[in-house]
């Protein structure tokens, strides 16, 4: 693990927050709808939705019922890692669509690298275990690469690179650091569905095999987009 200052890890991890990546994902869909048949935008949203579904189901399973893999310290797919590896490669692909295939491919790889960096930051900040970050990167990368493969031969002249790039950069700057309490929402849903009054937490779950829901009433996983004293715990 690179020995970086903590504040730098926080800056990197913020790139994977839902408050930033989901608006970018919607912007991708809007640009696709403007320049191409609606099926392309729908395909992108379906792939991303499926990836979000995987993250949500694994988190609900753990928080509500304690379903995970102790040997791997796995309590749910990392949403930050998934969103960043899903969204940033497609952002780069869309911006570089008019470019030569080699440059387009380089952009996709850079987007994947950004997602991996976010995954590393989640581990460095103890927000996720390595297995959770790796699975997040894999799920997100799969969604991104399937879409890129589908759209690789799309006619490049239908969208101008400059407006696409400017819109993505401006949106990223505006939404950087915006906090969306997704962990709280998932925890609330898990408690409603499971009927428990408290969620399962990692520490007690790792300590014993048969454990009931424990205190405190919020997730053990830290939300690293906000200061530690106000984080979702």
Automatic annotation (TrEMBL):
Domain spans labelled Phosphatidic acid phosphatase type 2/haloperoxidase: 26-148
UniProt name for this protein: PAP2 superfamily protein
Pfam families: PAP2
UniProt entry tagged with the keyword Membrane: yes
Keywords: Membrane, Transmembrane, Transmembrane helix
Transmembrane segments: 12-34, 41-65, 77-98, 105-127, 133-152, 159-178
InterPro entries per the UniProt record, alphabetical: PAP2/HPO, PAP2/HPO_sf
Organism: Paraburkholderia ribeironis
Lineage: Bacteria, Pseudomonadati, Pseudomonadota, Betaproteobacteria, Burkholderiales
CDD domains, sorted: PAP2_like
């Amino acid at each position: 693990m690179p020995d970086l200052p903590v504040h730098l890890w926080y800056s990197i991890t913020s790139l994977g927050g839902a408050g930033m990546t989901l608006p970018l994902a919607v912007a991708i869909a809007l640009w696709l709808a403007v320049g191409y048949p609606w099926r392309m935008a729908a395909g992108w949203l379906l792939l991303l939705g499926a990836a979000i579904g995987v993250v949500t189901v694994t988190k609900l399973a753990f928080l509500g019922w304690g379903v995970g893999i102790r040997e791997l310290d796995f309590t749910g797919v990392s949403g930050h890692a998934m969103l960043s590896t899903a969204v940033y490669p497609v952002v780069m692909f869309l911006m570089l669509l008019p470019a030569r295939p080699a440059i387009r491919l380089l952009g996709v790889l850079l987007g994947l690298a950004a997602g991996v960096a976010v995954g590393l930051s989640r581990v460095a900040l103890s927000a996720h275990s390595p297995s959770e970050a790796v699975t997040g990167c894999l799920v997100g990368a799969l969604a991104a690469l399937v879409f890129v493969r589908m759209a690789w031969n799309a006619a490049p002249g239908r969208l101008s690179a400059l407006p696409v790039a400017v819109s993505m950069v401006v949106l990223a700057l505006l939404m950087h650091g915006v906090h969306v309490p997704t962990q709280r929402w998932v925890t609330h849903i898990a408690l409603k569905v499971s009927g428990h009054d408290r969620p399962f937490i990692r520490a007690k779950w790792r300590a014993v095999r048969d454990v009931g829901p424990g205190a405190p009433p919020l997730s053990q996983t830290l939300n690293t987009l906000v200061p530690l004293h106000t984080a979702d715990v």
